[in-house]
Amino acid sequence: MIRVLHVVTYMGRGGLETMLMNYYRHIDRSKVQFDFLVHREFEADYDEEIKSLGGRIYHVSRLVPWSRRYKAELRRFFRTHPEYKIVHVHQDCLSSVALQCAKECGIPVRIAHSHNSNQDKNIKYLFKRYYMRKIPETATELFACGKAAGDWMFGGKTYRLLPNAIAAEKYIYEEEKAKKIKKELDLEKNIVIGHIGRFNPQKNHKFLIDIFEKCFEKNQKVRLMLIGDGEGRKEIENKVKERGLQDNVIFMGVRRDVPELLQAMDVFVFPSLYEGLPVTMIEEQAAGVPAVISDQVSEECIITKDLVKVEGLEETPEQWAGEILKQVKISKRDRSEEIKKAKYDVETTAKWLEEYYLKKAEVN
Questions:
Q1: Do residues 101 and 65 make contact, with C-beta atoms less than 8 angstroms apart?
Q2: Helix H or strand E segment including 194
Q3: Alpha-carbon separation of residue 279 from 13, 115, 151, 320 (angstroms)
């Protein structure tokens, strides 16, 4: 058996973490085992499951790319854990820091994985771009969730696509189940608009509230279900109260039952400022939920074209609201076969990843 070290921020219920867990659950763990190097001291959502599957979790300091102490800590870790011949890094633009330390310590297989197609244009943007340009020279392998993410991060270098695959059978739409879940949530008389994502600028929650306000003006039966958490949640809660919508917006927090909650949604809205190839878009299509997404979300994620409507971020909340209420009229049905044909079912892709790791370990 070989052990592969995944370098992440922490294993919460975000998109890339959920993707990793989907693969982890479906590989043959008697041949390939996943371990995780995380940059937070607290216990995260997936930690317990990782340990139950035989994985190890190691903690290091928060990532500070210019810190000599941080880099020394990474080098010390790599040198005292010679069992790792494969390091798979998921730290976005800053992946080159861990990759460089792994290279200096003689780790032969160093994978950089792009999960996004842009970055927030804040004070950190320029130095993130600086470290991003170093990724191809520090990695031996380049992976991306989609073409937009790979082209953006790797600057014309050759990379492999690894789909954000899901266990499609968990999301199959069932009318009776949907009715049951809506009843449990006291939403059986409502039109449920759903969104899944961390409360950060990328997900554009402020605009989402503007959109929902217009939806509510048009139809008082609509409710907005927000799944996720993050530093920006309080700001959005305050905006909801300012608009007098607190009785109509449901903050669900981080949830383990996303496949079930998708059953209760009548339409999914995703007005992100940028995305690579989001897992949530694959999940919602597998559940047969119609969607309205921004034109900054990679069109690679559109598998069921009749389900997904693309809107420009320059369009008004009024325009978005009109399209959302049109999409509600689309009947939900089982879409799992379409997901499988598009190669987003993890049963198939996990086997490929398992064999890839084994071949790399054998050569090195």
A1: no
A2: strand 191-196
A3: 11, 10, 19, 22
Contact predicate 67/37, CB 8 Å:
no
- Least Cα distance to 33 among 62, 10, 56 occurs for 56
pLDDT of residue 124: 81
For strand 222-227 and strand 267-270, is the pairing parallel, antiparallel, or unpaired? unpaired
d(CA 214, CA 232): 22
**Residue range 310-354, pLDDT digits in tens:** 999 999 999 999 999 999 999 999 898 899 899 899 988 999 999
Domains of the chain are 2-165+345-363 (3.40.50.2000), 168-341 (3.40.50.2000)
Question: How far is 98 from 30, CA to CA, in rounded Å?
Answer: 27
pTM beyond 0.85: yes
HEC string of 313-344 equals CCCCHHHHHHHHHHHCCCCCCCCHHHHHHCCC
Q: What are phi and psi of 98, to 5 degrees?
A: -65, -40
Contact 316, 298 (CB under 8 A): no
